[in-house]
Each structure stands twice: as C-alpha cells, then as structure tokens.
Amino acid sequence: MKREEFSSSLGFVLAAAGSAVGIGNLVAFPVMASKNGGAAFLIMYAFFVFFICLPVMLAEMSLGRHTRQNPLGAYTEIGKNAAWRAVGWMSVITPFMIGVFYLVITVWIFGYLAKSVMGQLEFLAAPDSFGVFINSNELFIYMAVVIGLTFLILQGGVKRGIEQAARVLMPLLFLMLIALVIYVMTLENAELGVKFFLIPDFDKMTGKVLNGALAQAFFSLSLAMGILITYGSYIQKGNNIVQAGKMVAGLSLLVAACSGLLILPAVFSFNPDVQLSELSESSISMIFTFLPKIFLALQTNIGYLGASFIASFFFLLVFFAALTSLVSIIEVPVASLMDGKGVSRRTALYSLGGAMIVLAIICALSFGRVDLFTSLTSYGLGADGLPLAKSFFDLVYDIFYETILPLNGLLLCLFVIYRWKKHNFDAEISQGNSTFAGSLLQKYINFSLGTFIPVILAVIFVNTVATVFFGKNLLF
Ligand code: PHE
C-alpha cells in the first residue's frame, strides 16, 4: 500500500505547527518567562529553539521520511538489533502515555469552554471550582466530545484528517491570538505587563532556569515523542526539510512570544501591583483558577455577557491548540500499529483509543474520587522531608513527560549520528535541498547532534531523576 502523504510542504508545516503549538506555548511559556527574567528568558529560549531543538527536529523528520515508518519501525529497520528496537518501543509508548494525560487536560479546557459559553463564568471564577469541576460527572460528557472530535480527525487520515484540520484550525488560532492580544492591550495598565515581560533580568538565569527553559522548548516543539518521525514519514521526497523545520520552530516561538503579550498584560490590568510570588506556579493553576478570575473582572467594563465572550474566545483558542497537539500524539501509536500489524486505520484507532480512554478515566479519577488512584504511591522529597504522595496522573506525568522525554531525545541523537550515520542523514536532508551538502548548517547539525546536544540531554535526564525521584536538584 502506498504511504499516505501531506499534500505539500505547507501541509506538513501546518500540521507540525499544530502539534507544536499547544498549552506549552500559550500558557506554560508566559508563566515561566515572567517568573524567570522576562526577555532574558525569551532570548535564552529562542537560542535553545534554534541551536538545540532545531537539529533534533531535523533529525526526527529525516529519519521518518527516509524510512517511511513510525518510530518503532524506523528504529527496528535501521537499528537492526534488540536494543534499538527497545528504544523504538519506548518512542511509541511515551507518546501513548503522554497522550493520556494530555487528553485529560484537553477535556478540562473543553469543559471550561463549554461552561463559559453556557454563561457559567461566575462559577469558574469561584475559589474551589476547579476541584469541584474535575471531580464532577459532567467531565465524562466533555471527555466523550473531545474523544469524538479527535477520532473524527484521525479517522480522516493524513491528508483529509490531520492536514485538513490543521489548515482550518491553525489560521483561526493565529487570528484569534492576535485579536486577543489587541484587545488586552486596550485594557488599563496593560503596559505594565508588557514592560514586565520585555525587560530582561539576566540575574535570574540560573542553571535550574536554563534547564527548565530547555525542557520547555523541547516539549513545546513536540520533540522526542515520535511525532516528528511519524509526521516526517508523510513528507514528500522533494520537499525541503530544513525550511519546513525552521518554519515550524519559528511559528511555535512566535506564538509563545505573543502569548506573553496576552497573559501578562491581562494579569497586570487585573492587578497592577501583582507580585511575582502571587503569579501561578503552574500553567494548570494559571488557566483554571487565575485566568477565570481575570475574565470575570472584565464585567465592570463590558458586562457579564462581554466577559463571558472573552473567556469563551480564549478557551476556544487554547482548545484548538490542544486538539491539534492531541491528534499528533495519538497518530504515533496509531501509525505504529498500522505499519507493524498491517491493520486498517479504523482498527488501530479503535483498539488504541479504547485503551487510552480507560487510562484517561483512571487519570480523571485520581484527583480525589478514587483513593487507590489518588494516593497510588509516594517518592521524592517534600518540604517536610517526607516522600511526596503521588496520584496515577502524577506518576504518568513524572515518568513519561519529565523523565523519559530527555532520555528519548538523547538516544535519538546517538541513533541518527552513530547508527544511521551522518552521511545517510545528510543525503536524506539533501533531497529537496541542494545547497545543504557542504553548508555551515550541515556541519553544525552533524557536530552538535553527535556531541554537546546528547551531553546536555544526559545532564537534564540525570538531574530530573535526582530531583523528581530523590528530591535532590543537582543544578544551582
Ligand atoms: N507542543 C505541545 C505544547 O506545547 C505539547 C504536546 C504536543 C503535547 C503533542 C502533547 C502532544 O503544549
């Protein structure tokens, strides 16, 4: 059977940008940047995106296009031994499990969207609503809708499903983001937020912050999840991989920077005296507890209906971003099953989707509803010197997102440079890019992927294990 393909380079760029632009860009980035040095963080982040993440991205895309396979197939075909095959398995299980927790968060976002549209903004802005909401039965209705939409897109296949959805949702997403930025700029005291975001504070650049920034850039570009290998396998041979990769990285960075210009002015217009310590610690608390309060406060200017409209608009934006990311991550195991077992897209989707739904339900029940899942285990070190209690959701997050992601990235670099070999990698990129061979870029990519990038990823990996599981941060 002929492999499915994106219709053009633009089709790939939109689909990959759909994967990259997600909750990470829209919320996690502004929160991190504002706490860690504003523009200094942005500059570091941009540097990481182009000098560390982009080479990894190109390696994944080339590996996919060369083998025309999912990650498991690609590692098996070129690795030719059991060890590399095991790495291939890890590259398929990781996105499957990250997909589980990302599905749960996407369901929460959709729930907040639905509630804002139904005029329940006041409920969302009340102090305990988030806890009440994530433990309500309603959640399962929202889950059914999100799963339905995701399946509908994936069922359409590469061109008519994934690419088509990205062609509609991504331009809408950009327009909505710009419209919201323009709107918050008109609010009183918005300029304080812009200043706060754009004035660099280089003193904040500690090892810990740099580690966080790189991990965030990695996650945000959907690296080491097998996504770009899989999407790469749908790129046409004549397309220019380097140009496409640069565009995806650039778009993702642009959205992150614009989101800073959306979130911070909104926060400062709500409270011009806001202190750093009051800003949410995590993107979850920012989206689900902090922002609803800000939206509700808009009612003094534009009435409750106006405030609900702005809130709905924002949640729709985040929902589009999350949906295209969710689609990309589920496509990885789906493609693996289709390639590996020769089953149809529908069979792959329904069997994997079924397993994913069961796990997502367990995640959703692990916030207090079912004791077993809520206090599943404990490890690490809390402020009180005792291990931290961890739920099923925490466990999935800590293992697959925090720990295995940098490990997968590290192994991928070693695989491409030392197993697949530089000259094969270069030959693949050169198809559709005649000036690549012999260029400075080629030298940089080959050198970095074979030397300092895997070293940096190894440091992140070791430090994450030490921090998360043993409560000891090794970086200052
Ligand atoms: N890039 C996404 C983000 O920034 C992360 C992601 C992609 C998560 C794909 C899951 C699946 O939110």
Can you walk me through this structure?
The chain crosses the membrane at residues 12-33, 39-59, 87-110, 130-154, 166-186, 213-235, 247-268, 302-327, 348-368, 399-418, 449-470. Pfam families: SNF (PF00209). It is a multi-pass membrane protein. Helix 2 (23-35) packs across helix 14, helix 5 (82-117) packs antiparallel against helix 15 (299-341) and helix 9 packs parallel to helix 13. A two-stranded antiparallel ribbon has the order 1-2. It is built from 20 helices and 2 strands. The protein has a single domain, classed as Hydantoin permease (Orthogonal Bundle). The protein is globular. A hairpin with an 8-residue loop joins strand 1 (377-379) and strand 2 (388-390). It is mainly α and 476 residues long. It has helices spanning 9-20, 23-35, 39-67, 71-79, 82-117, 121-125, 129-134, 138-155, 157-185, 190-198, 207-220, 227-232, 241-270, 283-297, 299-341, 345-364, 371-374, 392-430, 440-450, 452-470, and strands at residues 377-379, 388-390. The structure holds phenylalanine (PHE). The site of phenylalanine (PHE) has 14 residues, from helix 1, helix 2, helix 5, helix 11 and helix 15.
